[in-house]
Amino acid sequence: MDHHSQSNHVSSFQWLSFAYQGLTEIPYETILAQTDTLEVLDLSYNLLDENPALLSQLEKLSTLILDCNNYTSHVKFPYMPSVTTVCINKNKINNLPVFVEEIRRKFPSIKILSMMNNDAAPSYFNGGSLTQYKDYRQYVISQIPGLEILDDTEVPEKERVQARKTYRLHQSSHSSRKRKEDSSRKHTLMAKKSNTVIRQ
């Protein structure tokens, strides 16, 4: 009985918070001791700006909270397919396309993204106009189609459809380039076939 309770004691935290600790480095030693169980990691209200590369070892992590740190648009996250929620409010993110592309690529299962109070996320609270706010939302939603909540607001189907329409230009230019590549591939194949016929 004693042995059983000891082994439990060594282990399992599903939630770890290092908020308000004035950290300049991520305390990996403590965090990575919980790789088998950790689902929620709160590193908010610190002075962090380093790329959190080693967090990729947290295979069960679903929620990453990085509010009120010094992260910029150029932060490099590890690939974390288990994460569904990222909170990175009040950091130093000012380049929306760069940041959103990083989120889209590294968190393929993301459903909730909150990035309020960053320059890249204009809203009433930081001097952004309603038009800027709507455009910001549509851009993010168009780039991360699986998103269910952006900031503190759900993504209704109507907004998702509008976002797709607004930013379809980007996709259609990509598909027309692909069509050109396909047709040139066909042309090459036809040329090869005609060469084969000539040889016979």
TrEMBL record:
It comes from the Eukaryota. Signal peptide: none annotated. This is Leucine-rich repeat-containing protein 72-like. Coiled coil: none annotated. Residues 162-200 are annotated as: Disordered.
